[in-house]
Amino acid sequence: MREAYHLELGKLADQLAGMCAMVAEAMESATRALLDTDLAVAEQVISGDEKIDDARSSCEEHAYALLALQAPVATDLRTVLAAIHAAESLERMGDLALHVAKAARRRHPAPVLPEPVHGYFAEMGRIAVDLARKAETVIRTQDVAAARALEDADDEMDDLHRHLFSVIMDKEWPHGVASAVDVTLLGRFYERYADHAVSVAKRVVFVVTGRMPGSGDEDL
Fold first, then answer.
1. Is the residue at 220 inside a domain?
2. Which of 121, 103, 120 is nearest to 112 (CA)?
3. Ordered DSSP codes for 47-64
């Protein structure tokens, strides 16, 4: 019975890892749509968001079924609870990629981004996708060191986000208020996407160690 239960826990982890791959692809495509003013790619991201929502529902149903099947304790219980929280974070990452794609569609055929900030968003997109893919690896390996390393990449994202904000707040910004608003919102989407990826990794640390990073009772 226990062997069958642990097999189901493994399947649940596979579902979460699959969601990581889905949201990585969504943000990669959304960034391409944003930078290249590609309406077809934006539409693909928008239409594909329902699959991410369905994947979250499937993960949660599986997790709740495991809770009902056998009252888990210790690591097993942490695994199920972490999966529920991680699935929520991953769905939100999909939603943030969706917001990026919708911004690209809304302004089409005009570009959303002024040329001077293209480089920022290309790099933010790269970091975001890399974080999602690293989260997938962390889920599959339960590597605590790799999970904690995601914080460094998130710091890079935060630095870019702060620098981007300073660019649009410069009194010499020549692209108008509407453009500044677009850039501000888009930068926030990428920053929050990265935060959720780190949150997923922290759930893995919780599963393995029994402590949530940042809770005050653990050296990070």
1. no
2. 103
3. HHHHHHHHHHHHHHHHHH
Q: How far apart are CA 146 and CA 56, in angstroms?
A: 24
Among 19, 40, 143, smallest CA distance to 83 is for 19
Tens digits of residue pLDDT in 85-132: 999 999 999 999 999 999 999 999 999 999 999 999 999 999 999 999
The count of structural domains within the chain is 1
pLDDT digits (tens, 9 = 90+) for 122-135: 999 999 999 999 99
Expressed as residue numbers, the domain containing 196 is 2-209
* The pLDDT of residue 1: 56
How far is 130 from 198, CA to CA, in rounded Å? 11
Provide the pLDDT for residue 219.
39
The reply to whether 89 falls in a domain is yes
**Could you tell me if 180 and 151 are in contact, meaning their C-beta atoms sit under 8 angstroms apart?**
no
Q: What is the CATH number of the domain that holds 141?
A: 1.20.58.220
Phi, psi at 70, each rounded to 5°: -155, 120
Per residue in 20-48, pLDDT (tens digit) is 999 999 999 999 999 999 999 999 999 99
Q: In the chain, which ranges are E strands?
A: none
Q: Please give the C-alpha separations between residue 66 and each of 6, 19, 92, 168, in angstroms, as whole numbers.
A: 10, 19, 23, 49
Name the DSSP class of 38: -
The residue assigned the tokens 């790099």 is 123
Q: Cis link prior to 111 (omega < 30° from 0)?
A: no
**Is the Cβ–Cβ distance between 190 and 124 less than 8 Å?**
yes
